[in-house]
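Thanks for the sequence, V.! I ran MATE family efflux protein right away. Repeating your input here for the record:
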Amino acid sequence: MTQAPAIPQATRRRHDREIVALAVPAFGALVAEPLFVMADSAIVGHLGTAQLAGLGVASVLLTTAVSVFVFLAYATTAAVARRVGAGDLQAAIRQGMDGIWLALLLGGAVIALVLPLAPGIVDLFGASATAASYATTYLRISALGIPAMLVVLAATGVLRGLQNTKTPLYVAVGGFVANAGLNAGLVYGAGLGIAGSAWGTVIAQCAMATVYLLVVIRGARRHGASLRPDVAGIRASAQAGVPLLIRTLSLRAVLMIATAVAARLGDADIAAHQIILSLWSLLAFALDAIAIAGQAIIGRSLGANDAQGARDGCRRMVQWGIATGVVLGLLVVAARPLFLPLFTSDSVVKDTALPALLMVALSQPVCGIVFVLDGVLMGAGDGPYLAWAMVITLAVFAPVALLVPTLGGGLTTLWAAMTLMMTVRMATLWLRARSGRWIVTGATR
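Predicted structure:
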């Protein structure tokens, strides 16, 4: 974001309309996704403690396996949006099909690994013998739906790149409703137990993938785009995704280190940490929605050779990110007395969480800038820089976080380290945005 005159009011309004039109449906779709696990937990929880424990282990493994491949959505959004900006819808959809074919290949590879290794993977989490059997059953069945889940990621990226975030919202809501109904029917009506919950999720995910494929195929036929797999295109999609994979793995490592450190602080600290982390993740959905809008808008602007439009869009979205972060921070402060009793009645856990929640509240404006600039650089296809920036952030965060127990710090100190992590991310992303080196125009980067 190099120095530039103030954005004209008419341009600001246009950007605001676009951001709202893309971000609001994207937020709805993002919130709908975790509801899958919540619905499964609510239904399976009535079967017994061992079944719920097994679901807890399996769902974490499943969510982690899928989230690692979130680059399928991010990279596809940027690539498709560029071609939309260039006015080549045929190439845009062709690019999207390459991402979908890559998703199918990766999904097949994950199934081949998970099915035979499921018992061993579950054992690594230290589940009891009873819970482990339920976890293995759920994981093996649910793994069959991973290709569909990855297709959903890639196809969501296609539609976002086409500036369409409403269809993903409708599909996500429909998928949630179908998942809840299928789970209830198969678990209790058919008497399949936890296996019924897994099959319900697989069927719902396959239905969602089918709807997405029908939408993309219809667009491909309308614009004369080939549906056949293209080896060069699939390889290019994979290469574009590698830096984003490194970024995602580094971010997952940050969260794992934070949880491991919290566990070393004591039972009350890890319990409070899990509560705070769930809130932090919920707040991230609101900020990530703006980032998704950024991916689509920036990619389209650069594809249209509109460098100034990309700069103006970046500046306006940063303003949105800061404002949203301030609002979220104030909401956290105001809702603290109401939020914690929803999760625990333990006064020790509440007392541990309260000051750490203040740290989360203070960090929200920083988080707003980070999420937005992350989305801007993803939309620009600046994956290699994002990878290196996140690796540097991990290198700074890890030793600081690991020193927290040694120096006698508590959970608030740990979340201060998390705030430091976000501040380092903000600095690296801000420097890149100001440099303007991310502004590479054209249908391809």
